[in-house]
Amino acid sequence: MTVGYIISFILALGLLIAYCLMVKNKEFWMTMLYVCVAVVNLGYTVLSASKTLEFAIFGNEVAYFGSVFLCMCMFLTIVRLCGFEIKRAHIITCVSLGAVMFLIVALTDLIPWYYTSVAIEIVDGSTKLVKEYGPLHPVYTVYLVGYFVAMIVTIIYSARKRKMGDAKFAGFIAGVVCSNIIVWLFEKFVSWDYEFLSLTYIASEIMLLLLYWMMQDYVRRTDVPTPATYDRERLGVDIATMPMDVKIGKVLLAIKSGEQLVPREREILELILDNKRRREIADRLCISENTVKTYTRTLYSKLGVTCREELYALLLNN
Q: How many CB atoms lie within 10 A of CB 191?
């Protein structure tokens, strides 16, 4: 088992390094997700290789630390991939819940509420903890289930509100979450010496990275300006000669009831209508391309469109 955990840790560390080297415009919470998966597998490795109870408990706490905040990072990553804005209050709430959950586990020596007793057992050269659970152990289950439910609800809500560019992305993310749920439930009801959930986390990293690349590619395709004379032959309209205030007025006719554009969304809308590419918009506004992408998603959602072609169609049809 120790060799298996070492391999898992090397894979997780390799994926973290590959992500940092290969992805130019990184999402913070996805980066932290990769870090947490590496921490989880490091904890399992330390626990499996330990020869004393103290060192085994330390490894277990490292693994729990990674697992607790891994769920948070996966949830916030999914929130961002689904096109929603993460506010400071959301981050404070998630971090606070994670910190409380970890302290419940870490303070077990002082307050035996999570474990009432802990011992080690060495099987075939690998160490595992023999634990008796205390009254607060179900709290961790509630914590995990809560995040899983939040992820699924976010995906469903995003798909219904057309926050994502394509339904296949919602299905892809749902598959990532469901795979973790299935393995977690499997380990709850079937006793195995090896923590297969650590491998599922690695598989989730790979799938989320693939999804991130797919969405980057999707945004690049839809972010390429259409010709200024889009569909001129059909409607006899030349977008290039249309004054900007007229363009804005036509587009705002499509805004959803109860919605309004924030100043930054208005700036980005004007630049999009001026046929500026995402990189040009980022340079003009002194923000990152990822920030432009995020505002563009919320802007498109408020206007009920999914790409520039649909946005330009508003100019021709209103």
A: 6
CA distance 124 to 188: 23
Q: Cα 126 from chain centroid? A: 34
H helix or E strand, kind and range, residue 3: helix 2-22
CB atoms within 10 A of CB 142: 10
Contact by Cβ (8 Å): 267, 285: yes
Buried b (16+ CB within 10 A) or exposed e, 162-187: bbbbeeebbebbbebbeebbebbeee
Given a contact cutoff of 8 angstroms between Cβ atoms, the answer to whether 68 and 43 are in contact is no
Residues in the chain, how many? 318
Per the DSSP assignment, residues forming a β-bridge with 127 are 122
Q: Give this prediction's pTM.
A: 0.66
Nearest-CA neighbor of 267 among 255, 253, 280?
Answer: 280
Please state at what angle helix 197-223 crosses helix 289-303, rounded to 10 degrees. Answer: 70
Per-residue confidence (pLDDT) for residue 260, from 0 to 100: 85
Q: Measured in Å, how far apart are the chain's first and last C-alpha atoms?
A: 65
Q: What is the pLDDT of residues 100-159, one digit of tens each?
A: 999 998 888 788 889 998 899 888 788 988 889 899 989 988 998 899 899 889 888 877
pLDDT tens for 273-312 read 888 888 889 888 888 888 888 889 889 888 888 888 888 8
Enumerate residues 6+ apart whose C-beta is below 8 A from 37. Answer: 12, 15, 16, 66, 70, 198, 201, 202, 204, 205
DSSP state of 114: S
Which helix or strand (DSSP H or E) is residue 126 part of?
A: strand 126-133
DSSP state letters, 194-205: S-THHHHHHHHH
Distance CA 75, CA 201 (A): 13
What Rg value do the Cα atoms of the chain yield, rounded?
A: 24
CA dihedral 240, 242, 246, 251 (to 10 degrees): -40
The pLDDT score that the predictor gives to residue 238 is 54
